[in-house]
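Write out structure tokens for 16S rRNA methyltransferase.
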Amino acid sequence: MDQAERGFSFQQSGPLDMRMDSTAGTTAADLVNNLSEPELRNLLRDGGEDRDPGKIARAIVRARPLATTVDLATAVCRATRPAHPGIKHPATRTFLALRRAVNREGEVLQQALAAVPKVLRTGGRLAVLTYHSAEDRVVKHWIRGHAEEEKREMGMAFGQPNPERWVKVLEEEVPSEEEIARNPRARSARLRGAERLPEGSK
């Protein structure tokens, strides 16, 4: 992901690609150059939780056509603030939102969770590592929804949970300060897990 030609990073100039599979699918350039301003605003708000998605979307539309990661980062900085060393880059959330949209990460996560009841055996453990608060909320709600003794609306939103409690919530893990110092990218990581209980457990 650090390779400039993959288009994931604003640290160096590269094509606006961001595809995990670089042989197929929509690129980030397709999105920033073709989506309407309202569509871009919604993408940035929902996918990256940008603080001012409307202003950034407007700046992107005005800067079209955008071809490189530097083009996009520059447009975001013009709409927000200049980038400064040691401070979170203002385009971080924008790049995150586009990467998630390009690779359909939210949809893939939902599909994976929906398959858990079919593949997780009694005593088996589910472990999900997320790097974004929106993804973490999905996982947290899914686990809690399936850990309730009765069907609840929250659980039903993520599939068809059993009417009986069938997973035990495991303690979540977050990176230590030492780990973050070694690997700054671990800062937002969160590991959640659950263990499947025997059928009929209360």
